[in-house]
Specification:
By secondary structure, the chain is mainly alpha-helical. It has helices at 2-35, 39-42, 44-54, 59-81, 90-128, 131-137, 142-180, 185-195, 198-226, 231-260.
């Protein structure tokens, strides 16, 4: 009986201990990034390169996704509000849904799937080909040269992409509401203007996306930095980045929503 109990404790404790160790390693990496955060601004081209990779190359998927999400919200909102005879509120429903929740969350998950996984794969490949070790030999810090610029680029990109997602979604909602369903265009915009709060909706949504950007980028660079230097190790690290980022985004969304709204 005692041996079985010990085995149960080991099975429970081993994953928990591993989680605590990884969490500590992640915060250690974050501390090192913060210490070296000023270096990329001296080599600003490194930040521009990462913003291009993380942000510019994600514009198409963010814009198209936001457009379709806005159209679906408008169609569903019209079907629901039609029962209560208040179809003029479709614009408000689309805008609030996007600005408060769907915009920051979905753009962050899409960012993790495209840019986050790409960052992990790039860093993991550099580790597998011993490029990071070569930088250490040449007295060049990988944290300064590789990790910190990617971290800054990700933080800048996610809020901008979230705003783009929201704008594209609202335009998609307008297309369905006004062009397809023939609702009044003036009512669509006026109701949206009267119900959307700049501080409670727009600013809080941007704050959410900023927090998501920090979390996703930290997970991406950490998984790449800690990946086993093999093809299988890089593949697993890339998968972990997407899965862990999605879970963390949803968990943080609940916490932030509880405090903000």
């Amino acid at each position: 009986m005692g041996i079985k109990l010990i085995n149960i404790i080991i099975k429970i404790g081993h994953p928990l201990a591993g989680f605590i160790i990884n969490l500590g390693s992640m915060f250690r990496l974050l501390f090192e990034i913060i210490i070296n955060i000023l270096y990329p601004f001296k080599k600003f081209n490194l930040i521009i390169k990462e913003i291009y990779f993380c942000g510019v190359l994600s514009i198409i998927i963010i814009s198209v996704s936001g457009w379709f999400v806005g159209m679906v919200l408008a169609l569903q909102g019209y079907n629901v509000l039609q029962r209560f005879g208040s179809t003029g509120m479709v614009g408000s429903m689309v805008a609030l849904s996007l600005l408060r929740e769907l915009g920051p969350v979905l753009s962050a998950i899409l960012f993790a799937s495209r840019a986050g996984s790409g960052m992990t794969a790039e860093i993991g490949l550099m580790k597998a080909t011993e490029q990071l070790d070569a930088m250490d030999v040449m007295a060049i810090s990988p944290i300064k040269r590789i990790i910190a610029p990617k971290f800054i680029g990700g933080i800048f990109s996610v809020p901008i992409l979230a705003c783009l997602f929201n704008a594209s979604g609202i335009i998609g909602g307008y297309f369905v509401s006004v062009i397809i369903l023939k609702l009044d265009s003036g009512m669509f915009w006026s109701q949206m203007q009267s119900t959307v709060s700049f501080h409670n909706d727009i600013i809080n949504g941007i704050i959410k996306s900023l927090v998501f950007g920090i979390a996703i980028t930290l997970i991406a660079v950490f998984q790449g930095f800690m990946a086993k230097p093999t093809a299988e190790g890089v593949s697993r690290a890339t998968t972990k980045t997407v899965v862990h980022s999605a879970l963390v985004v949803l968990a943080l969304d609940f916490v932030l929503t509880a405090f903000m709204f």
